[in-house]
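Quick start: read one record
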Amino acid sequence: MHCLILLALCCAFCLAQTPGWNLLFGTSILDETQKEPLQFDKPVPKWIKGSLIRNGPARYEMGKRSFLNLFDGFGKLYSWQFPGNGSAFFTSRFVQSDCYNESLRINDIAPYQTFDDLVPSMGFLERELSLSHGLDNMNINVYNYSGDCVVLSDTWKLYVVDCYTLDTIRHSMPNIPGVETGFPFVSVMSVAHPVREYGTNHHLTILQSLSIIPGMPHKFTLVRTKSADIREKIAEWKVKKMPYLHSFSTTERYAIIFGCPFYMDIEKLLQYSFPKDSIAFHADEPTIAYIVDLKTGSVTTIETENVFTMHHVNAYEMDNNLLLDVVSYPDASLVSFFEMNNLMNKTKRDRVAFKPSLTRYRIDLKAQKMTPITFDTNPSIPFANMLEVPTINEQYRSKHYCYIYGVVFKSDNKVWGNFSFVKKDVCNSTGDLSWSLPGHYPMEGWFVPDPTGSAEDDGVLMVPVLDGNLGKSYLIILDPKTMKPITKAYLPIIVPFHFHGRFIENVY
């Protein structure tokens, strides 16, 4: 009994040190809403007209089973809708994937592929069935493909949803004319961050095809996306090892795929069933960049330093070079950090050597050389270069730009919970700014440009935040020039930690 009392006191002490943490990670939030009015404490600029739609895990168990990893939580969509008259509404809805619907029907986590195992664990037959069903839970990102709202994960499969109600309409596994995806290839992996093709309304994405025949090369296909269902091949090339990808970059003329030595092993996947057990970081191997000419389809391969990255920021052409900005890490330990037993243990998560570094690579195509460059640090905001989940003013995609917006999860480099939302000025570090409040957890923000503005930071930043002290969520609108609050509104439900999304104009 004394041990139980002591354990309870210790748990209470941990939660007191990081207020509301249990609501941010690992607690299922089952509430759904439909166009609930929001009350902002100050007027919302009337030029804001559209919807901020975001995606992320929000349910971690079904029946007697639960997930072991944040990456596997059932996806949920959130929409902040702004009609352009100063009013605002909030809608939330679970992604009605085949996996989610089947899990509801049987009151258990249905046998679809997950990144990690379950508790209780899957049996042999369930693992085999999950492999055949594939990964179906789209809980990472949201895009607008020529009017089709789609939700994505790091897979080729996607779901189309209603932009206004967030109802799930159907799934899609688009064919690519001229691309062989059948035996001996398993063509199911892609990226959760397609990139808009410069000067068009199309997006570029990647299909990764893993060969199941030992010794036979795998292949990349760079693809143009015209809608939820229409694809075109731009280029295709073979690789000896297939890196895990989450994002990539484009300039006006080139796509840059950064193949870090975090390789997928198809044989281990078929043996163990879980991607977590099928990917490994190779600290003794270089990163390989594949630069694709979008006009000719030719591919240039350049090796650079051993590094890991999940999130690209932007890339552009200058003085006959390509400049690529990414959030880099010395290894891939970030991936294992999101296991629930790490996230929910304060001692463990604080001990993780979590220190992302904003890095620029200068790519000289003629010399076939990549040179890493570190950004200056502003002494008053020394943590600005440690931002994650980066976003920019999308009007500057593939162009010269200065401002990156992101979250620093460990601002003091001690406590994984001291969140700050930052503006990084990569042109002049004296322009670095930040916003934070103790016990408040900002998540990925989105820059909405002022239609009458002319400067890169003319607009607003929309940032979902969990107020851990009150146990409530709110949306704050910040002035990007000062990082001072313009207005905020508390939400009718809790919005836990989620991954990505975007503002879609004229959808409300």
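The radius of gyration is 22 Å.
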